[in-house]
Amino acid sequence: MGYLEESGITISDDLDDADVIVVNTCVVRKDSEERMIRRIMELRKIYGGSKKIVVAGCMVSSMPSTVKKIAPESSMISPQNIDKIVDVVSSPISKEYISGVKKIDKLTFPRLYRGVVAPVPISEGCMSDCSFCITKISRSTLRSYHPRVIVETIKDLVSRGFKEIELTSQDSAVYGFDLNDHGYRFMLPDLLNRVLEIEGDFMVRVGMMNPQWLDKIIDDLIEVYRHPKLYKFLHIPVQSGDNKVLKIMKRGYTVEEFEQYILEFRRKVPDITIATDIIVGHPGEDHHAFLNTLDMMARIRFDRVHIAQYSMRPLTEASRMPQVKEHIKKFRSKVAELLQEIIGYEINSSFIGRRAKVLMTERGFRRHTYVGRLMNYRPVVVRDALENDLGKWLYVEIDEATFFDLRGHRTV
Q: What are the distances in angstroms from CA 87 to CA 3, 7, 130, 253, 375?
């Protein structure tokens, strides 16, 4: 969107008004892929004769033949070639940019930001080899962006009034593993220290970190997490609470090692929010393994859990393994979700009655509602907040909780 706007091309929210339709795809899960395919076919049926359709994103790099089959006249552009988007959109003929891995910092690309929250990518790709993952096929191997470029980008965003900086990556924990400065490896804690030295009123949120690599940086990372401008929020996906399943997944750690990481963070960073991801029904997960996952959830008591039913992805090792039946996956997913709702509600209810400092960051799902974040990134719906409160710090009396968020009203 940044490239298109910079070139003078107008971005419209009205499909009927548009000359070109760009569909940015995701194929990380089977249901996502199916939605993408249905949407492309629907758009082609309605607009195929009158509007150009451009398919972008991971489906192009991992499944180009599928795109060609469902929309043969469409243009295609992979994530590694997004700097060609103006050429693709402007061309009177169909164009394809699929292959090739460019060693360039995507931070240098023009971007279109809205609101007071700005995502800043720090790297692309990862170092893991999980048996279930198609993203490693769609994205390149690890490519960490230069710290100087990241810092300068954030300085600019802060000077323009952005209040929340989200450091994004497929795996933030491995940032810098491919960087070497005169024999010194510059890693995530080093980057965070540089970013947090920037002057201004803003908060930093660190993106997802795989446990496999955390032991390389955990001591320095915990020390950085004490900084007042860093949200006390850790997104660390465990995926399973059973060691046998973790081995099949090729996750590179044990349940015991994972729990030790959580213990260290909770002991040294009080009130930290721990978010995780869990896959139920992965090949190799029997009833006993699933119960181990439930036991782990009950022991650790995560603040947030994203629970997904295993989705078979093409070209992955797990897709060639014996599969768990769909009705079993659905049942396990429902049981795990119910357990997490109970745990999440109990944790959030403990905040009722507190007066808390909240950074207002976004509009809520409901009309005329606004959401802020505590210092540990826990979301708070502030009922009497206004549009011009976005980007401000408010003191809020918390008087209600759900398993998902907190709710309250402003106070002096």
A: 10, 10, 35, 45, 43
> How crowded is residue 20: how many other Cβ atoms within 10 Å of its Cβ?
17
**pTM beyond cutoff 0.85:** yes
Neighbours of 157 (CB within 10 A): 22
Q: What is the DSSP letter of 309?
A: E
The residue to which tokens 């490239």 are assigned: 3
Domain boundaries, position 93: 2-97
Q: What domain count does the chain have?
A: 3
Q: Residue 102: inside a domain, yes or no?
A: no
| Residue 214 · residue 235 · CB < 8 Å | no
Taking a C-beta distance cutoff of 8 angstroms, is the pair 255, 242 a contact?
yes
- State pLDDT tens for residues 369-389: 899 999 999 999 999 999 999
Cα–Cα dist 389/398, whole Å: 17
| Contact present, 395 and 410 (Cβ < 8 Å) | yes
* C-alpha 319, offset from chain centre: 24
CA nearest to 308, candidates 338, 266, 336, 285? 336
Nearest to 15 by CA among 58, 45, 57, 59: 45
CATH number of residue 366's parent domain: 2.40.50
In a domain, 50, yes or no: yes
Q: 278 and 405: one domain?
A: no
